[in-house]
Amino acid sequence: xxxxxxxxxxxxxxxxxxxxxxxxxxxxxxxxxxxxxxxxxxxxxxxxxxxxxxxxxxxxxxxxxxxxxxxxxxxxxxxxxxxxxxxxxxxxxxxxxxxxxxxxxxxxxxxxxxxxxxxxxxxxxxxxxxxxxxxxxxxxxxxxxxxxxxxxxxxxxxxxxxxxxxxxxxxxxxxxxxxxxxxxxxxxxxx
Length: 191
Ligand code: FE2
What we know:
This protein is mainly alpha-helical. The chain folds into two domains: 21-79, Helix Hairpins (Orthogonal Bundle); 91-190, Iron/manganese superoxide dismutase, C-terminal domain (minor pseudopilin epsh fold), CATH 3.55.40. The protein has helices spanning 21-42, 53-59, 62-79, 91-101, 104-117, 164-167, 171-180, 184-190, and strands at residues 122-128, 134-140, 151-157. It has a three-stranded antiparallel beta sheet, with helices on both faces. It is globular. The two termini are 29 Å apart. Fe (ii) ion binds at residues 27, 31, 74, 157, 159, 161-162.
């Protein structure tokens, strides 16, 4: 199976000023595309040749895991964002956030703290665990919580390539800007 770069659900400049068109040009157009191309070059002749990304995330190791997870993670990240419209968590997610973290304010603080403290490259995830409550999970490099049986509903890419052109070393500024462009409609559907 040949994987293809999924279309972005918005224009390259749609997330400005939080994330510039220049950043998306590289992050989506170059980095995300490279993971797709690498994966298509890696899987022919292996047992993963006709398998889904989820199967590779659960079972593959090394370069196939890394590239499959990075394809999935980026698609999930980009499709969870939209132009800032001051949205807030909707009913089920709002209730689960209050139940799991106390309040939206406390959840935001915990999420951003987790993202700023993640050493090096990786992803911060909001996941729904088998009990139905929410947790924040840090993953290094291409890590994806599906591998641990958890259901992701939101992610933030904290690889430098996600923010360096716009924010250089100021990861916290990127995270605050990211917060304003979360598409809570999508998060509600995923929940
Ligand atoms: Fe990325």
